[in-house]
Amino acid sequence: MLPKHIAIIPDGNRRWARKNRKTIPYAYNKGIEHIGDVLKWCRKHRIKKLTMWGFSTENFMRDRDEVKNLFSLFNQKLAEGLKEDYKKYGVSVHFRGSLSSLPKDIVEKMRKVERDTAKNGKYELNLMLAYGGRQELLDAVNAALARHLRKVDEKTFSKLLYTGGWKDPDLVIRTSGEVRTSGFLPWQSAYSEYYFSKKLWPDFGAVDFKLALNEFARRRRKYGK
Fold first, then answer.
1. What whole-number distance in Å separates Cα of residue 216 and Cα of residue 138?
2. Which of 100, 136, 148, 175 has its CA 20 to 30 A from that of 216?
3. What is the set of active-site residues?
4. Domain covering 5-134+169-218 assigned CATH 3.30.1330.10 in the classification
């Protein structure tokens, strides 16, 4: 049995930079390009939905120059045109998170990428940017209050989240050896299987991905039953 939807916390870029005596921007660039590799692995195993955590709300508290360089890299990658990279793979791209906290020019380019890839319906890549699980839940509650909803059920609440009722991830992978969720998709991953890899994100390869799939296949999902 293979997961239909995989979510990844791609942790360890900065440690990889120190270990390999590279700059942090170099490591981040390598990490972003690595997403293309994961899409190829997903396509090979017919996994049609991939969600990646790209930047957390807590990341804003990092060194100002580091954050500035990361935004510059986002801008560069978006300007290069994700459309062509993902068109050949049939991938539609979606950006979710507290996007209003990001620079406006970056958000505008994100929306353009979404429009340009909207018809690529075979595979789906969801990039979570300026994302924090607690903030997502608070925003969903405030959205319910703004709509004057007196009562919500799980289905209604799910639609108020950034993910807007997407199918929940079957498998969540975190790299770098850290064994915690850091608030990633707290509502959506309630019954997801977790796999923690010791590999730093840029070193996480096809063999490691297959190990995660093999581990998932061995588990019995009970959903509390």
1. 31
2. 136
3. 11, 59
4. no
